[in-house]
Amino acid sequence: MTAPWWREAVTYEAYVRSFADGDGDGLGDLPGLRGRLPYLASLGVDALWITPFYPSPDHDAGYDVTDHRDVDPRLGTLADADGVIADAHRLGLRVVVDLVLNHVSSAHPWFVAARAAGPGAPERARFHVRPGRGPDGATPPTNWPSIFGGPAWTPFGDGEWYLHLFDREQPDLRHEHPEVAADALATLRFWLDRGVDGVRFDAAGSLSKDPAYPDLPDGWRPGDPAPYSDRDEVHEIYRRWARVLASYPGDRLGVAETWGGPDVLAPYLRPDELGQAFAMDPLYWPLRAQPWREGVDALLAATGRHGRLPTWVHGSHDVRRAADRWGPDGARAVLLLMLALPGAVYLYAGDELGLPEVALADGEIRDPVFRRSGGADRGRDGARVPLPWTDGPAPYGFGPDGATPWLPQPAGWGARSVARQSDDPASPLAVTRAALALRGAWWRGRPEELTWRDAPADCLAFRRGQHGPTCLVNFGDAPVDWRPYGRRLLLASAPATEEKLPARATAWLA
């Protein structure tokens, strides 16, 4: 039996607003993305994940949606979406769209009606609405915090409060409500009918909340179990959606945006649920051998219980740039490590260029996290600065000359551009292209069990099965001899000699 296309796929996340601007208004859009699809095909990825492009007031860069079955006029049209899908397929790329079904925009017709209705009105039953505490209802119903900072409840002004696990402009939906459940199914079918190959479910664990709405215990910290995350009831929703995915031809993918360790993500991968669930913990693993070896083993064991493989996330629009988290050398080393491991890999746009996190001034930040945290959290915009495609001048090929991007690009951004790196065989782009080209021949389809090999301190070495190439990772501060692990150096994430692999580098050896 042939494995589904997504089992070991490399998927590229195109953050639409920062990828390519086709009309010069400063905002990346679907026509811009469509024009850059040949670049993705030449890069060697298998699939494209497109972040939300639906109508939105843009309080959270499109993750506050007013209509899940249309396209924001600033970003294009449904015909443009169809064109992206068709052109991607012609180029051999699969397409994954991002569905935001945990919440809607506060400008969504449902919430506009809920706000206008009085306490206890049926229009409010689609949302998590509770009376405030205290004699005048002026205290939030629970002590739940917003993930973006501040409380997770906002008052209607009439004694009732609504829940928003993210920004106050993103009220959470009640998926127990039949109209909400039916609308989600209609949205899923709408995009599958248009030919998408998969769906990323945003905020996957948050769709079900404890109906008793209990307070969080004293001493609770983010990451601890919570009554609004990864509850058993959420899996019935995904089983329902998985049946829809399975009713379409072509191994349509459902991928959960999960945050947590192996025991959190594994239940989403049961045979009657989804094909992938994000492994986010590795984003924060330090460059040391023991955490990676133990973490890889734990993820392989947890996902393997359900016949699945890990979904390695190298970066995303929600975290600092890989070059900032691990350092430029470390980011390339981790990418080659992930590409050699069993499972799928998600690569964030710009990380193939080694783009750094950009320090933005307070007045330039658009992320609601910055506002809701009172400036304590700088937010995620430093990883969302529009891509540089050409040497210059600004906006460096992101849009027409003279256009002003929605987030400012730093001076000299063109030195990191696709055009500049395409001619440099030692560039991050060249290393990424080479790794993706070699992965199919040397790693993809190999046995899914790892055979760990003895390695020096601060190093990892493994094979896929008993034979085949070796992946050697040097997390240490000094070069190591690679020759005990292979006679031929296939690829290294940093320049290696005939004997030595440098510090913070990965080599593939045959």
From TrEMBL:
Residues of the Glycosyl hydrolase family 13 catalytic domain: 13-384
Domain of life: Bacteria
GO MF, any single term: hydrolase activity
Listed SUPFAM superfamilies: (Trans)glycosidases (SSF51445)
Pfam families linked to this entry: Alpha-amylase
Keywords annotated in UniProt: Hydrolase
Keyword Membrane annotated: no
Family to which the UniProt record says this protein belongs: Belongs to the glycosyl hydrolase 13 family.
The protein's name: Alpha-amylase family glycosyl hydrolase
Source organism (scientific name): Micromonospora globbae
